[in-house]
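User: What would this chain look like folded?
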Amino acid sequence: EVLSFSRLCSRVFAETGGAAVKLLDEGGRLLLMDRAVGAVADKLHVYGKADQKADFLEELVAISKEFKSACISPDTLEFAAASSGGPLREKLRDLSLITAAYDGYFNDEASNPDDRLSRLVRVMGDCSIFDSGHIYFDGFTDFTAQEMQVLEELLRMNANLTVCLTCDSVAFGGADDGGEIFEASRKTALHLLRTASENGVRCELVGRNTDGSGKAPELIYLEKNLFQYDNARYEGACRAVELHRAPTPGTECEYAASKVLELVRSGCRWRDIAVAVCDFDAYGPLVENIFEKYGIPVYVNRKSGINQKPPAALIEYVFDIIINGWDHASAFRYLKTGMTGIEPSDCDILENYVLQWKLRGRIWTREEDWILPPSGYERDFGGDNEEKLRTINALRRSVVGPVAALQKKLRRAGSFGGKLKALYEFLVDIGLPKRISEKAVAFVKAGDIQRGDEYRQLWEIIVRALDQFHDILGDQQGSNADFQRLWKLLISQYSIASIPVSLDRVGLGDLSRQRRRNLKHLIVIGATDDALPKTGAAGGLLSAGERMALQQLGVKLSGTAEERLYREMNSVYLSLSLPTDKLILSYPRTGIGGGDRRPSFVVKRL
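Assistant: Here's the prediction, encoded as structure tokens.
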């Protein structure tokens, strides 16, 4: 069996009990956090006046996850607050109150996924899968406190266990300096050795050094020496490593596309090539457009949010109409999703008429026909105008009918549960499930298989979001504006990922997501000093300084500047050591938004 920690939990709970417990997803947890903050708002000092927008609630959910993974309870935060001073004291007290309220809303019917590993540790002794056989942990640099508890429990159970870590020989020897790229793995190895010793478990250290057979000599040398910081130099012709400086990001992407085509024309397969982008948020749309222009088939390794995809956005826009009335912006944002059954050409006819006569508000919903001439007053009102008016009025009624029915049902609904039922019926009435399916088929026929695969998942995700909303807040009362705000919070948490739809495609994605084995050629673009490595400031509600202060109080959290640097350097090492035949790095002289860019230290080392 090949398992992740999450699937290991499911495997164990299926035998010991608890597998049927319903877990809240990201959207459900955000709604629950919104509820938790509202429940303790009057007791908060730092976050009491914070606007409960998605970004703020996401950070609260993220810090709650981090506390769980580090085995830090609300009581621990309260104790740390009493031992600290200044702004940190008030912040920790607020976080203690919020996380305690958040935890209190979970129950047997809606469990917190972040508690699964803690539950796993408690029942591992009752599960037969650990009684025999061998357990391997591979693909990890280090472990969270929760994950480490699982390994420690396996050691106490004297299970047959092998933990595979990428380290150097110095790290295995237990010396203080194992090199920055192996620092996290070195600390993990030493911690496991100490734990095994404390539990009287015999350990064996086994080193595996590959000779790099099948890999270009330059790349073998590069892997061993890139982070050594000495004066060693590769002697001989270096054909497996190329560096390129481009005038702009656009020309850099064009260069990458030309290298891909050059490699394929020389006999390489698309699937043997990966293009890694150091800042995919900035480069992504540009490089995708250029590769499409040159007919290069790509698989984009990313997750995309669904809140702005037309089927999900339609729900927000129909509530804009219900709350704000039939103004031009609300009405035509809704119609231009392409999910209402109105053809684009018909939408244009209706919009031109509405703009011409500045129609808004209740005039949309009147039973009487619109009678103003489509051609304006400067021409005679004739047969052509009458035909156009009939078309326009028919279009108006087909648009207004379902929305007006939804508005009536929402008015009668006594709770969010009633509103959710009305919304679901509206989506079915306008044929949204069928239109999403038709859109998916159209994308596949047009050759955009990845987007077609994404669309195939959309209706299921929307229904799941409605279910989560109902489970958490179905019995609560609120206005349509409250409902829309909570829906926007909820749907912002869902994203779509797709598996490669064809085996023979170029892999395209962020450098940190490159993990493909047996890769022959890697092209890295955007290798500037601000993007490679990515360090940046500590994210989240606690700064790097506050994390250091907590560490001094015995409350250990990850995310210090030093740890972030170690992780990033390890990620760079793992990515650049992937290719067997060729590594190409490029960087632009100017950035996406203008301004000079300097090459990364990696370019200088190369």
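The first strand starts at residue 135 and ends at 137. If you want, I can go into more detail on any region.
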